[in-house]
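Troubleshooting log. The previous structure file for this entry was overwritten by mistake, so regenerating from the original sequence record. Sequence copied from the archived sheet and checked twice against the printout by T.R.
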Amino acid sequence: MRLSDAERDLLFRLAGLSAPAPGIVPARITPSVQRLLDRLAGVPLVVYDAAWNLIVANAPYDALMGETSALRGNERNGVWRNLVGTGSRAVQTTEGHQDQLARLVGDLRMTAAHYPNDARLRGLLAELRAASPQFVELWESAADPAAAGESRHKVIEHPAVGRIALDCDTLVVAGDNLRIMAYTAEPGTKDADRLELAIVLGTQSLVE
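Regenerated output below.
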């Protein structure tokens, strides 16, 4: 349901329920964000909430990075997946991976301070502390996530197409605190051709 904040609150009241508290991480796609996703339907896009829980990914993203509907529980959280879980198709140097983890944990720490009443987030933090000594170290170092939204170059190891060099831009939606990640290639390059082929092959397999 593509509702505004006021419409959502009214719906909760009509149902005899309380609207989500301000201290809870927003986890919905607003109408304006949905319009953006619709306009960029051919670009691999994934949307996370402020705690890096995956909300939605489009078909080109699934074709590039693997089907997100198969992810369950904490595997749907980007911090958990990169620190404890299965990781991703991104090919990284050790230094690059450590830099990514520091940024993710730094951003998660800011989210925890901003949404102190979110029980789900507190549970995730407790599980991360128990499962990953590296998470504890990164958390205590208070890494600065200031550049979390900058463009980053990534190499994706696609099982059918091979390696694809892409730009990955993370856009932060103010207010709802969503993170939209978009993967693009320089037009006219071999990487653009590989990305297009990966999307064609992947979307075909998803509808078969």
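Residues 27-207 form a domain with the Beta-Lactamase fold (CATH 3.30.450.180). Archived copy saved in two places this time.
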